[in-house]
Amino acid sequence: MPEQSYYLGVDIGTTSTKAVLFDRAGKVIAGDTVFYALDTPNPLIAEQDPEEIFRAVLTSVRKTIRKSEIDTKQLKLVSFSSAMHSLIAVDAAGGLLTQSITWADTRSSKHAKYIKERLNGHEIYLRTGTPIHAMSPLAKLLWLKDEKPEICEQSAKFIGIKEFVFHELFGTYIVDHSIASATGLFNLEQLDWDKEALGVAGITPAQLSHPVPTTHQLTGLVTEHAVFMGIPENVPFIIGASDGVLANLGVDAIEPGVLAVTIGTSGAIRTVTTEPKTDPKGRTFCYALTENHWVVGGPVNNGGIILRWLRDEFASSEVETAKRLGIDSYDVLTKIAETVNPGADGLLFHPYLTGERAPLWDANARGSFFGLSIHHKKQHMIRSVLEGIVFNLYTVLLAVEELTGEPVRIQASGGFARSDMWRQLLADVFDKPVVIPESFESSCLGAVVLGMYAIGEIDDFSIVSEMIGQTHTHEPEKEAAGIYRELLPIYIRLSRLLTEEYESIADFQRKHLE
């Protein structure tokens, strides 16, 4: 009987770090999640403590290994997924000069606009694949230089959260091509830092980490950390990629024409191409997975975070009832929404409560209800919010389709995929069959499959179709899809008409909140 093998995926997310241990067949052996805070003292700031996140990595691995009770000699690798677009300034000794400035931080909005309008931003985007937006480390660096020059003067390196973790584990500054391709500073064709982008940011290549392929592996863990995690020092650590591209791999959406839709705290639509591809209109991203796999798509700010707002602000009494009955509070929301006809009787909701990335790329965008009339009740508003999240994803799909063609299949993942109502809503709005894998650990599984490829255990990614287990398929319902075909053009026109007013109301809010 062959020796059992185990593979550990670690996903460093915005609100938590998750470690999941798989066997070779893709079965989950054990897992653990450690949550942490996102510091948002005002609507513009979204920061985290890098050291707290590093402790979360160590703790999640330690607890997962303990739960699994495996012989750690059978642990073949640890491979990483990570959120994108974070920026941390460190000094020559590796000391922190800033917190981790996350993708959700919008203090650099005006600098992003300046880059786009005055510093050849569109041409930089076409080479780097990262839309010019406040999420981008490129814009954050320009903001940091202008607003906090004393920090820039002390900074030896500007890194992201995964780079910080790997430096703590191995004492070296490296960045995988996937995370690098999400900085706005990385030339996709040359697979190296882009000279013009560095000039805009006012930094040199020496102030950034050394770029390496996503399959790059390291051994020789710092002994103290190996002991704490309970794993051997010589276990290969695969640097891995970003959470978005690995979610595509983890749901078996890696063939051209297969589209992945993810809704977690935020959301995204992504598809894989065999070469870098950017959008002449600047609406989509292009990030690296491997040298032969590039992920084109668009991220949205407003996914599960809107669902949480909806629960807390619209359904507090229902949530209290759910708690007493032992029912999940989010299930209550979907049950309420199901009492209303598709289209919420003509009530539309734009879910831009945290600005928006794709397809608007406008940090000033704000949420709104449209079509509200006297006959609309709370349940209509709840349904329109749920529909608005998916409508927004559909607008991203339209942009992706222009670049890569109409998808042949949609694979869905994320917390929302646990809900039958959400899955059907996605199929109806997109008017296409939606396939949902049984496993919800897509980024961790993607990291593991990439790790297996990195150490030579597999020659391609085809194994993932066997590892994801059973799937569920939802076909669009003709009547609901027809209603959405009528409403979507109105939804899209409205967001365009409100562009100038988004800036006006955002300026008013900033003035009175600061």
Attribute tags:
single chain, 514 residues, alpha+beta, Nucleotidyltransferase, domain 5, seven-stranded mixed β-sheet, 20% strand, Gluconokinase, kinase, FGGY_N, gluconokinase activity, Carb_kinase_FGGY_CS
CATH class of the largest domain: Alpha Beta
- DSSP summary, beta strand count: 23
Shape: globular
Rounded to an integer in angstroms, the radius of gyration calculated over CA atoms is 22 Å
Report mean pLDDT, rounded to a whole number.
93
**CATH topology descriptor of the largest domain:** Nucleotidyltransferase, domain 5
Q: What class would the helix/strand composition place it in?
A: alpha+beta
Write structural notes for this entry:
- The chain is of the alpha+beta class and 514 residues long.
- It has two domains: 6-246, ATPase, nucleotide binding domain (Nucleotidyltransferase, domain 5), CATH 3.30.420; 304-433 and 477-512, Nucleotidyltransferase, domain 5 (2-Layer Sandwich), CATH 3.30.420.
- Helix content is 41%, strand content 20%.
- The protein has a seven-stranded mixed sheet, sandwiched between helices.
- A hairpin with a 2-residue loop joins strand 17 and strand 18 (293-300).
- The N and C termini lie far apart (66 Å).
- One of its GO terms (biological process) is D-gluconate metabolic process.
- GO terms for molecular function: gluconokinase activity.
- Pfam families: FGGY_C, FGGY_N.
- Residues 259-454 form the Carbohydrate kinase FGGY C-terminal domain.
